[in-house]
């Protein structure tokens, strides 16, 4: 409990801190386990809540490029706003685009 619970500051709603308790740590741990290096391109398939946190975590951990793959425009827009390169798998070939991005 000493490492997993924090007191929510007065003035913040549950909605404002919800991601800190489950979704952020899941995305963060996924990125940490990849042992990201500064020269790495990281591709994340799925831009739902956990994917969004993994995208931002990979960026914070110093990945050269982070590629977000999904088919929902609103999720891809959010990923792009967070710094990811986006691929809509309904509109383009994921393999071809990843090959373009990684040379």
Describe the 3D structure:
With 103 residues, the protein is of the alpha/beta class. The protein has a domain at 40-102: NAD(P)-binding Rossmann-like Domain (Rossmann fold). Helix content is 48%, strand content 15%. The chain is built from 5 helices and 3 strands, in the order ααβαβαβα. It has helices spanning 14-21, 23-33, 49-60, 73-81, 94-102, and strands at residues 41-45, 65-70, 85-88. The protein has a 3-stranded parallel β-sheet with strand order 1-2-3, with helices on both faces. Helix 4 links the parallel strand 2 (65-70) and strand 3. Helix 2 crosses helix 3. The termini are far apart. The relative contact order is 0.14.
Can you tag this structure with a few keywords?
103 residues, alpha/beta, Rossmann fold, 5 helices, 3 strands, 15% strand
Which CATH first-tier class of the domain at 40-102 would you pick? Alpha Beta
Give the CATH topology of the domain at 40-102.
Rossmann fold
The CATH superfamily of the domain at 40-102 is NAD(P)-binding Rossmann-like Domain
Q: Let me know the average pLDDT.
A: 92
The main pleated sheet reads as: 3 strands, parallel
Q: Ends: how far apart?
A: 46 Å
Helix/sheet category: alpha/beta
Stretches where pLDDT is under 50 for at least 5 consecutive residues are: none
Give, in order, the helices and strands: HHEHEHEH
Total beta-strand segments: 3
Please give the radius of gyration in angstroms: 15 Å
The CATH architecture of the domain at 40-102 comes to: 3-Layer(aba) Sandwich
Strand order of the largest sheet: 1-2-3
Please give the share of residues in helix. 40-55%
Count of helix runs: 5
Q: Give the overall shape, derived from the CA principal axes.
A: globular
Beta-strand percentage range = 5-15%
């Amino acid at each position: 409990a000493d490492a997993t619970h924090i007191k929510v500051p007065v003035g913040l709603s549950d909605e404002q801190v919800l991601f800190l308790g489950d979704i952020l740590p899941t995305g963060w741990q996924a990125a940490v386990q990849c042992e990201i290096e500064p020269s790495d391109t990281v591709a994340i398939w799925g831009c739902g809540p956990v994917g969004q946190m993994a995208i931002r975590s990979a960026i914070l951990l110093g990945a050269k490029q982070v590629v977000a793959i999904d088919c929902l425009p609103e999720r891809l827009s959010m990923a792009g706003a967070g710094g990811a390169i986006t691929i809509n798998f309904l509109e383009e070939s994921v393999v071809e685009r990843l090959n373009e991005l990684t040379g």
